[in-house]
Write a structure and sequence with these properties.
It is a single chain. This protein is an alpha/beta fold and 483 residues long. It is 39% helix and 13% strand. The protein is built from 16 helices and 11 strands. The chain has an 11-stranded mixed sheet, with helices on both faces. β2, α4 and β3 form a beta-alpha-beta unit.
Length: 483
């Protein structure tokens, strides 16, 4: 059952107060944080005050929205007014935003309870959360392993019950890959469906905010609360936001589902991941879906394309951390040395690597060969998907080629780290919605994720297929045994 619904039920039946619920999560954090380190900042006072306000509403007999009193974890690249927002970077160590992001403002208005800011790879660059300048987060299924990234703190916190639900951001897979590694549901919405106002920018043409939740229904409820047009984000889509829970159905009769051939041919895919995905496809068929193979020939070019476009945008976005406009300023004898010292000491290796790649790809003489070429390939990838969606409703493939790896295993090998996002990146490049949901475990008991990809603004179909699959399986009911 949806955790949001369950807690809502407890609140309306007065079985537990919102303060008791919030305190329960804070106590669990006290018990588990020494092993997990999912949170960079815990906002217990804020949470308890927000919970008390919900309790006052209940006492006054006011109607309660489904999200009121539900405790949430927020990725620490979402600006929260008056609450430190580090982006996992030393350069923003002391940054306290003077304004609230649109999504967190919407959550406040819905009466949600903010438990704290979760750990991430620095500026959301990474696939393991090991690029955080502050701490390494453990995977709740095996704390020696990574939770995935970059929204690893949010995914681990949801999996471990350190919050009811969480928000992450996804530029190339940062919601879906950690969801897959931690055995939870992760949804990257259509580009433009959720406002990016107040999300610290990494690669603006790819970034989207989305839910990480224990179940598909929770994702539907949370997406409904954060989606919608915002005049403060010029790429925000002006479309109506439906009640996504109306799409939760349990049979898939007549639905056409495509299997992306290229994702199964990919090198380095774990046999356990492949087997679990094949079994999931069979289950979708048993639920009434028609399955067909679809070739997306440009799919494998997503990764190299992304690693030109994303660093290019990052190199421009991160120029603001110069110690003047933003960033922990390192004073020195001249302006130039102040800039260089601020940036050399403020950024970690991966961020510097990307600033250098991006600056190079955008520089005169190389722009056409790299950046422009990558933009053309991006269009081809988009066209592959358009063709595919002319004949199927939803595409399926594994979310990630492997299950969670050991901390330290890939930190010195950026290329093998980048390969984690082979299957998620093309979805961002095309601006499509993608969902990861649990579909099994490997021999070590580590979760495996199934990725569903929809056409632009077809989140409804992801919820339909995801929910039907979830209801027919019990992967989502399994929880890590942490104590
Ligand atoms: N892991 C990918 C990267 O390192 C994607 C990150 C993201 O989606 N924010 O860029």
């Amino acid at each position: 059952m949806s955790v949001i619904r369950e807690l809502h039920q407890q609140l309306v039946s007065k079985e537990r107060s919102a303060v008791e619920i919030a305190q329960g999560y804070l106590d669990r954090m006290t018990a588990l944080e020494p092993q997990l380190r999912s949170y960079l900042t815990v906002t217990a006072d804020v949470a308890l005050a927000q919970a008390a306000a919900v309790d006052a509403k209940i006492a006054a007999g006011e109607a309660l929205s489904p999200l009121a009193g539900i405790p949430i974890g927020l990725k620490d690249n979402l600006c929260t007014e008056g609450i430190r927002t580090t982006c996992g970077s030393k350069v923003l160590e002391n940054f306290v935003p003077p304004y609230e992001s649109t999504v967190t403002q919407k959550l406040k208005e819905a009466g949600m309870v903010a438990l704290g800011k979760t750990n991430l790879d620095e500026f959301a660059m990474g696939s393991s959360t090991e690029n955080s300048a502050y701490q390494i987060t453990g995977n709740p299924w095996d704390v020696e392993r990574v939770p995935g990234g970059s929204s690893g703190g949010s995914a681990a916190a949801v999996a471990a019950g350190e919050c009811a639900v969480a928000l992450g951001s996804d530029t190339g897979g940062s919601i879906r890959q950690p969801a897959s590694f931690c055995g939870v549901v992760g949804l990257k919405p259509t580009y433009g469906l959720v406002s990016r106002f107040g999300l610290v920018a990494y690669a603006s043409s790819l970034d989207q905010i989305g839910p990480l939740t224990p179940t598909v229904e929770d994702a539907a409820l949370l997406l409904g609360a954060i989606a919608g047009h915002d005049r403060r984000d010029s790429t925000s889509l002006d479309v109506p936001v439906p009640d996504y829970t109306q799409f939760l159905k349990t049979d898939l009769k007549g639905r056409k589902i495509g299997i992306i051939t290229e994702t199964f041919a990919a090198e380095g895919i774990d046999p356990a991941v492949k087997a679990a995905t094949e079994k999931a496809i069979q289950q979708l068929k048993d639920l009434g879906a028609e399955i067909q193979e679809i070739s997306c020939p440009q799919f494998p070019y997503g990764l190299p394309t992304y690693y030109i476009i994303a660093p290019s945008e990052a190199s421009s976005n991160l120029a603001r951390y110069d110690g003047v406009k933003y960033g922990a300023r390192k004073d020195n004898d001249s302006l130039m040395t102040m800039y260089t010292k601020t940036r050399a000491e403020g950024f970690g290796d991966e961020v510097k690597r990307r600033i250098m790649i991006g600056t190079y790809a955008l520089s005169a003489g190389y722009y056409d060969a790299y950046y422009l070429k990558a933009q053309k390939v991006r269009t081809l990838i988009k066209q592959d998907f358009e063709k595919a969606f002319a004949s199927v409703d939803v595409l399926v493939c594994p979310t990630a080629p492997t299950t969670a790896f050991k901390a330290g295993d890939k930190v010195d090998d950026p290329l093998s780290m980048y390969l984690s996002d082979l299957m998620t990146i093309p979805v961002n490049l095309a601006g499509l919605p993608g969902m990861s949901l649990p579909c099994g475990f490997d021999d070590l008991g580590l979760p495996i994720g199934l990725q569903l990809i929809g056409n632009v603004l077809r989140e409804d179909l992801l919820f339909e297929v995801g929910y039907a699959y979830e209801q027919a399986t019990d992967w989502h009911k399994q929880r890590p045994s942490l104590s």
